[in-house]
């Protein structure tokens, strides 16, 4: 029996869990003699501390974003080279070693930086572990990830691979471009011509966060017939009730959706999405080839994602001080831009070397896999003059 240990962080339904769950489902659908365990290391190490941190985390970044940015920039993703502070190592290193001894995994998959950091420290001190894979869930690598003693790296794109090679001196043969892993149900939408009214999906993530209130003021009013909106409120019950009380005919609130099939159907029915730049949501919608408009970004990792994705022109940044309908019109009325965006997405997907679960099979069981094939629906030469 092959044992694979997946290590996310916190019990909040974040992308770290979503990515781990997607890989576990894909592996479980193909191998019967495989045992996959997913353990939130923070809860394992200290349940009380994890609960306290979890309960304050979302409130913190929502009410005091500047302090979150300062801590993130100075301790997690510094703009200049700094040494890791080791005050938390003393508490958690022994716990991590105990977890690995208890689980005895044949392969370890880290979908969050802190478990990776700790295992890297353990291996640096001479403690042997099973092979370790870092699966990066954002479009950058923060400084907390362990890298020196990690065996394999699953990265979002070729640029991140190049950065790990040049900045961290990692052997290129240990780095695989898998994209940010998503569930296999998120296949490209069937090509069809959009018709009025355009249906726009709005997402604030599982917590229903972001500058949603500001966005609502920028949305078209009742008289606007070109757009209808479905708003994913996540677990933000107050937001859901507030939207329902407005009774707007062109705005439908949706409570937390746990079913990936239901979410996939919503993607299929939409003509575009307005969202925050969370790594997993962006990856899902890129695989669906759904035009992406960003309404806001939480401080820290989402802001860095946004900057990177904007540079690659894979997303459109909304100005909430300007009517949203006019900004959507600029895209939907410009056939050239739609084709160019599709080409950029096709180019991104075509550079993915393999799916994460396929590479895990290859590494763990020696089963060779073929690269995924993404059919390019539009070629740059087809852009009308």
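^ structure tokens above, recovered residues below v
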């Amino acid at each position: 029996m092959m044992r694979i240990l997946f290590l996310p962080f916190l019990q909040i339904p974040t992308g770290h869990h979503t990515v781990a769950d997607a890989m576990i489902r894909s592996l479980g659908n193909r191998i019967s003699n495989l045992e996959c365990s997913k353990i939130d290391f923070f809860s394992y190490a200290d349940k009380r501390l994890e609960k306290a941190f979890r309960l304050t985390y979302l409130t913190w970044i929502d009410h005091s974003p500047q302090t979150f940015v300062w801590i993130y920039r100075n301790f997690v993703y510094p703009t200049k080279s700094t040494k890791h502070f080791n005050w938390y190592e003393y508490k958690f290193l022994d716990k991590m070693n105990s977890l690995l001894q208890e689980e005895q995994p044949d392969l370890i998959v880290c979908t969050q930086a802190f478990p990776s950091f700790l295992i890297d420290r353990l291996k640096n001190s001479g403690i042997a572990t099973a092979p370790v894979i870092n699966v990066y869930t954002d479009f950058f690598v923060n400084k907390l990830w362990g890298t020196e003693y990690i065996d394999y790296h699953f990265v979002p794109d070729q640029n991140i691979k190049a950065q790990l090679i040049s900045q961290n001196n990692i052997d290129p043969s240990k780095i695989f471009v898998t994209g940010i892993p998503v569930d296999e149900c998120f296949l490209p939408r069937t090509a069809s011509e959009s018709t009025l009214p355009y249906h726009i999906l709005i997402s604030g993530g599982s917590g229903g966060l972001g500058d949603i209130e500001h966005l609502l003021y920028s949305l078209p009013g009742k008289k606007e017939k070109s757009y209808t909106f479905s708003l994913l409120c996540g677990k933000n019950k107050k937001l859901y009730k507030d939207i329902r009380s407005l009774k707007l005919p062109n705005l439908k609130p949706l409570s937390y959706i746990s079913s990936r099939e239901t979410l996939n159907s919503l993607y299929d029915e939409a003509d575009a999405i307005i969202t925050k730049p969370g790594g997993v949501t962006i990856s899902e919608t890129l695989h669906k080839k759904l035009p992406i408009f960003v309404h806001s970004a939480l401080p820290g990792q989402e802001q860095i994602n946004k900057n990177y994705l904007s540079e690659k022109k894979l997303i459109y940044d909304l100005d909430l001080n300007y009517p949203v309908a006019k900004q959507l019109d600029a895209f939907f009325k410009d056939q050239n831009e739609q084709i160019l965006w599709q080409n950029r997405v096709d180019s991104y997907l075509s550079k993915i070397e393999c799916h994460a679960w396929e590479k895990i099979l290859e590494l763990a069981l020696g089963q060779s896999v073929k690269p995924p094939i993404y059919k390019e629906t539009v070629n740059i030469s087809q852009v009308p003059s």
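Residues 82 and 119 are 20 Å apart (CA to CA).
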